[in-house]
Design goal:
2 copies of one chain form a homodimer. The first copy, chain A, is mainly alpha-helical. Helix content of chain A is 58%, strand content 4%. In chain A, a hairpin with a 2-residue loop joins strand 7 (788-793) and strand 8 (796-802).
Chain lengths: 867, 867
């Protein structure tokens, strides 16, 4: 009986021998076009070596004779070589880096021009304050309104940051229209206008999205040269690299870009993607900075916001508490920002009158917000108290400045630094300006990032953080005018260093990342403050993560995208909650030996997209999973008019056909308008409406006979619509039957056993065991990007876990609020004892079944009494 | 039949209701001791609020009256609070960081003292060159010999870097004795001595190992306070964090440490571990540097090898080709280093005479190598041409120096810098010294790292890289004395910057990491050379990765640890090779309804550790997997003397017993010396040796009756040895049977059906489908740390893939050499067509079986002819 599987091996060898012939046919083509092209190129090169005369003289008319022939040959070879290289990863990454660097640089240039134009207009009208105000306010309003309108019309998907969507896409969820050329154009132009307006908006989130779209488009473009870009796994890997490129070329921060993109988009990360990201991001940042040198903006490649803090004594050990304070305060501030941002969105949604009004005039909200913000920053007005005339970039440059503003009172040696003047007000001091700036910018940024234009929140938050750090730094400098260090040398406090720390901490708190630390090092070109920055960022993260989700997760929840919450720190119970505590036990399934009416019943009773296929209701051995649409197709196929017609034709051979032409039915068939899966049922509906109750007619939509809109997407795909002309003809024949006859026929059909041979079945759906811990389940779900998994016990299906259950379980036990789906304390049973027992019992039953089935005489398990 | 699973739901609810009672019992204890302790503390606090009198007056004799009582209460509360907090992750991480910082600092201090002692000895004896030479050579020889001997005696596992082993452990493989206190002590002391000798050895690899051991020991220590540290998944996560701490506190480089440890130990990593690593490594680096400040080594917290390159113009764009050259050359150099290192080890192994000699005198090889190296570096001897008197740290400090050594010929303004003098030789120039240094150190480092002491290769390689970079930098400086930049300002070339680039590139090439870039930024405290460093590191990696495995992977292969090679870049075929091309089809399995003799046969015919358990040989439905040892235990239990004795006792009730006492057998039973699983067979062996052929007697070891050594570990565990006294008594009864009778009885027993109820079965072994791509299989294996996976098709077992097959498949197609296990081109078949067909066929068969079984009348799949 049991033992060695010799037959299996020989069988498989026979299979192989057969398949070998087949594959040889395909081998050449799908194998590796790169290799093929190389071989081909080598062959051609040899050929050309023998016969240097080109084969198509018409094309090479001007080169036929003379010295140019070898050049031409060489060019041809180069071209072939290049095409053969197109499939390599590094070519793709270099191209991506190059394109993104160009895009980033061009956008920066356009944005700078826009801002310059505003400044020029404002400056030119300094004779009349009213005109000045009009110019100051109108310019951003127009730009933002245009941006919102343009995006709305071309691609509404381009609105917002894009990082939440990328996170979702990298989890394996397909979001339509998010990576198209249209969205790309909308995002690039929309973002340029939005940032050109001078509103407190950022560009790094959108850049992640732009880079991803760029990668998707590039891979589609390059696939024209070969078939390497069709693999989905590879595309996902390239998207991960693209996210790194996006951040990298936005800040010229390759390392920080890679790390930041990992932190905000992934739960698990492959080290090989990390290398890809490094490669592409470095190349991109390099080109981005080379362009600046080429444009004479810079003398050589340096950091974007270069600082010049002293190297020998960057900070004193006793300043560390102040840095820690910045970190903790930033943690609270970051959480507050996320909360405020969410509340604004929710308020807009909930207030029905506002909502209705805004829905009608979509561009009013952006215009209104821009108007308010730009009015408040108007430099001769309130803007004078908050350095309103500075652009975001100038603000950062001044905040990272090397000097101490509050060193000896106000304006002493400031006069010569024009740009710093904005922070000084004759009737107030630096502290007031900074505090006003922080408070105003805080709500302005939270409000501005809700405008429906492409925009990020990283940069505004970064600036606020820098201002807060500067405030603390200036206070420290005022408190200890000669520094804290008491030894021979006097080392004054550097408020700019505090600004760097604050920027990293607040942006880290809002995004829940620690890689903002690396970004500030790369952005400022100095790493001397590494320990304060790291400490502040970690503290800020610890505080913010315990209070609020990250900004991106918050948006994911607002947008109701599918997500899987993170497992928090140190929640030991995660290791003890088990799948059996959270799984759904009451699942619908399809058996191998079921009838069509069972399928109907199953479709009726559940809405899940994937149904388990088990051997039989008794054994419950899981064989695979079948999609809901496939089940629907099986059903509709069985009950299709075509089959009925075939049947009738066979009948018609013996008896006469009395014709009946029903144009209304023909029309409906041609329309096939609401549910292609169930069209046969629908066809019978209008005629049989009087005699039969509606619910029993439509198994898929029994509860509510659906309008056309609900069925256009999702479960019902137009797979039955392909043969409409045939259908018409057949309908004429088919409708010889009366409704009652049709019903009878259908009842008959439903009573047959299901033929699964035409259905597509996933033969290995992901399986878990009952006592898999929540921790491990979470890991597997996020690693493999699963949507659902079946829970089995020794082959038997016992339950199912989907993202929903997992989310509930994690959030339930994480936050304390929300639905607790498991009975309290159910998860803390002793794992080894109970599960082993359960397993053994189940196995024992199975074994007993076999035992009794095969040889009921030798039943005793101990075997003691058989001698 | 099929349809809704209402019964399941009610069944499961009933189960729950039952289980709930059980779990309540456990709930309080295993749940979450932290919460429990908190509750308890709160309860006690309340109690004490009511009754402030302490309950154990004897202990609190001095506090009973007066003001100290509240203090005591407070202290008790604090104590309880602390204990309740011990389970939190962050407490663990802080403790780990603290301990490792102390260890690192103490070791650094000890090493510095050792080196100082050597210098002092060498300096004191400057009157006699011979004595000086003796001192210079003897001191390191003694230290290295001691280190080698000490490690050999205490824990041979402490030898070498430790990163290869950690990589293996983090894959989920259990390496015994690698994380024990003994190994910890051996590694710390051995490493201190080895580095104190001044040999070209590094400390970062061992530090990764030390930190991991520290984490393992700490978690075992903390588990005394509660049960949180027993979870394996958590321990693995903590080990990953510990690796980051190891590198972080070794170089005071938290970010680089985290990234480096990720790159060298993981294929996939969880972002939550990355945060853990950041937290612990930052804390550790912080404490490490604070200790230096506290010890007055430093004025404040700064980088370890602080550089002072100019900030405003770090390098010219036109210098980039030189940096790229450094990168490419370092790539070749790194590959050569790995190759050389491996060849030395292999040479030592292969040369049998050398090997035999070295095995006898284990300490001779270290002593010899040390002697040679220290002779060559003797400063008055050959050492004068290679800066032999400098320690590793001094070498780095000088190489990163800000000045240009070759600016205007030799020694001009050098006189005042004592330490730099080592690089100057009156009769040669800096270039010669650097070249000699690089060449000599290269082979010395490759040789020294093969000495069996705890040592790493990172630091030596880093130094060689820095020297190479310096060489290129000095050449550039000599070539362009006034810099390349042609504008108004003259920016001279900074050779120190080239040294930084070279160090990162060569160490990156040897370890196949890009995070060495981050490490040099943190190590030097300057990030201004970010682009050159990144470019050089990426180029070096590209070259080195295409030539050789990383040093750690090379060691893994030399040590024959289980590993999974990386998927290379751009190997598109990885996406097309499928599991069916590489899987083993000829597998042995256990069926549910098999007999004991089948088990015997299976054990005979295969050596795999996990056997699949299928429903029956016909259906081949995979139910689970059973360990080989479990199968052995089942067999031995069935044939055990105990069972035979029980049987005989039942017989003895009816007939008379004639006693037979055989002391020799009793002795053997007590010994139970070579195979606990098969002890019953062994017992019968000596007596039946004359009458029966040996192979048929021992099913597990039939071919070669094994010596005691081979069975002490691995498959056979001493599970049968627990009841020896009982066994003795029973043997006296049992051996009333003659050998022939025993054989007969055993034959009878073997013919019975197997009772699996006592066996431990894994109910959900990992399953793959035939057409899973190699890429995905690799991902899953490395994600989940799998050792093997079964390949199923709609529930049926069709094959098995283990690490070995996967490795062969990847390396076979990666390097071109090695065994190609799949037929050529077999993998490039059209996936959708063939697999869907195969699936459908298999499913169809299954379906047909059911069809015919249940209702043979309605067999037609179309169902057309039933009307």
């Amino acid at each position: 009986s049991g033992g060695s599987g010799g037959t299996m091996a020989s069988e498989s060898e026979a299979q192989r021998a057969l398949q070998y012939e087949q594959t040889l046919m395909y081998g050449r083509y799908t194998q590796d076009l790169g290799t093929f092209a190389k071989d081909e190129a080598a062959r051609l090169r040899l050929q050309e070596g023998d016969t240097p005369r080109p084969r198509r003289p018409s094309e090479l008319l001007e080169y036929t004779q003379g010295r140019c022939a070898p050049c031409r040959v060489c060019a041809l070879q180069c071209q072939r070589f290049l095409i053969s290289k197109v499939g390599e990863d590094w070519v793709f990454l270099i191209l991506l880096g190059l394109v993104m660097a160009l895009v980033s640089w061009a956008m920066d240039f356009a944005i700078a021009t826009c801002l310059q134009a505003q400044k020029w207009m404002y400056g030119g009208l300094d004779t009349n304050v009213l005109l000045q105000y009009m110019a100051w306010v109108t310019y951003p309003t127009v730009l933002i309104t245009f941006s919102a309108g343009f995006t709305q019309i071309l691609a509404p998907q381009a609105v917002g940051s894009g990082i939440p969507e990328m996170k979702t896409i990298l989890r394996g969820v397909v979001l339509k229209e998010y990576l198209t050329l249209k969205t790309f154009v909308a995002k690039v132009i929309g973002l340029t206008c939005a940032l050109g307006s001078g509103m407190p908006l950022g560009k790094e989130g959108p850049f992640v999205h732009i880079a991803s779209m760029c990668a998707a488009l590039l891979s589609r473009f390059l696939s024209l040269f070969g078939g390497f870009y069709e693999n989905e796994a590879r595309n996902i890997e390239m998207l991960a690299a693209a996210c790194a490129v996006g951040v990298g070329c936005c800040f010229a921060a390759p390392i920080g870009g890679v790390l930041f993109s990992i932190e905000v988009t992934s739960t698990f990360f492959a080290v090989r993607n990390y290398w890809r990201g490094f490669f592409a991001a470095t190349f991109s940042a390099f080109i981005f900075r080379v362009l600046a040198v080429w444009n004479k903006d810079e003398e050589t490649i340096t950091a974007l916001f270069k600082t010049r803090f002293r190297l020998d004594f960057p900070f004193d050990l006793q300043e560390l508490p102040a840095f820690a304070v910045i970190g903790i305060a930033s943690g609270f501030g970051g959480a507050l920002f996320v909360y405020l941002n969410r509340k604004i969105v929710q308020f807009m949604r909930r207030q029905k009158t506002i909502n209705r009004f805004l829905m009608k005039k979509r561009l009013l909200f952006p215009a209104l917000v821009t108007l308010i913000i730009s009015t408040l920053t108007f430099p001769p007005g309130f803007g004078q108290f908050m350095a309103g005339q500075l652009t975001q970039k100038d603000t950062l440059v001044t905040l990272f400045d090397n000097q101490t503003w509050a060193k000896q009172g106000i304006n002493d040696e400031f006069e010569y630094l024009g740009i710093l003047e904005a922070w000084l007000h004759p009737r107030s001091n630096v502290f007031v300006t900074l505090i006003v700036f922080i408070l105003m910018k805080f709500w302005m940024s939270a409000l501005a990032t809700t405008i429906p234009v492409p925009c990020g929140a990283f940069m505004p938050v970064f600036v606020i953080g820098a201002a807060f750090g500067r405030l603390v730094g200036e206070s420290m400098a005022a408190w200890f005018p000669d520094g804290i260090h008491t030894d021979s040398n006097i080392y004054r406090i550097v408020p700019g260093g505090y600004a760097v720390v604050g920027a990293a901490a607040l942006s880290g708190a809002v995004t829940h990342t620690v890689s903002t630390a690396v970004i500030v090092f790369e952005l400022t070109g100095q790493i001397s403050h590494i320990l304060p920055v790291m400490i502040a960022v970690i503290l800020a993260n610890a505080v913010a993560q315990s209070l609020q989700p990250s900004l991106y997760d918050s948006i994911i929840r607002i947008k109701k995208l599918p997500y899987l919450p993170e497992l928090g720190w140190g929640h030991h119970e995660k290791y003890n909650v088990r799948v059996e505590d959270i799984m759904v036990r009451d699942i619908r399934y399809v058996t191998l030996n079921c009838k069509y009416q069972d399928l109907q019943q199953v479709l009726h009773s559940t809405k899940v997209k994937n149904l388990p296929l088990v051997e039989s209701a008794e054994s419950m051995i899981l064989l695979g999973s079948i999609e809901r649409t496939q089940v629907g197709a099986l059903l509709s196929n069985q009950l299709s008019p075509q089959r009925r017609v075939l049947l009738l034709r066979q009948k018609a051979l013996s008896e006469d056909g009395h014709r009946l032409s029903d144009s209304s039915i023909r029309f409906q068939v041609r329309g096939c308008d609401w549910c292609p899966v169930n069209q046969s049922r629908y066809l019978t509906c209008p005629r049989a409406a009087g005699t039969l109750p509606a619910p029993s007619l439509c198994p898929l939509h029994s509860a509510r006979p659906p309008p056309a809109a609900t069925c256009g997407r999702g479960a019902c795909r137009p797979q039955g619509c392909s043969n409409t002309p045939l259908l018409q003809e057949e309908m004429i024949l088919g409708d010889k039957l009366t409704p009652t006859e049709i019903l009878e026929w259908e009842e008959q059909q439903l009573d047959q056993l299901v033929d699964f041979s035409s259905a597509k079945i996933d033969p290995a759906p992901f399986q878990l065991v009952e006592h898999t811990s929540l921790h491990k389940t979470h890991t597997i779900f996020s690693l493999l990007g699963l949507d659902h998994a079946f829970v089995t016990s020794i082959g038997r299906l016992v339950g199912m876990v989907s993202l929903k259950e997992l989310r509930k379980a994690i959030e339930g036990s994480l936050t304390g609020k929300g639905v607790k789906v498991r009975p309290p304390l159910a998860s803390f049973r002793d794992s080894t004892a109970s599960t082993t027992e359960a397993d053994t019992t189940a196995l024992h039953q199975l074994w007993d079944r076999h035992q009794h089935h095969h040889m009921p005489r030798e039943a005793g398990p101990g075997g003691d009494d058989d001698d």
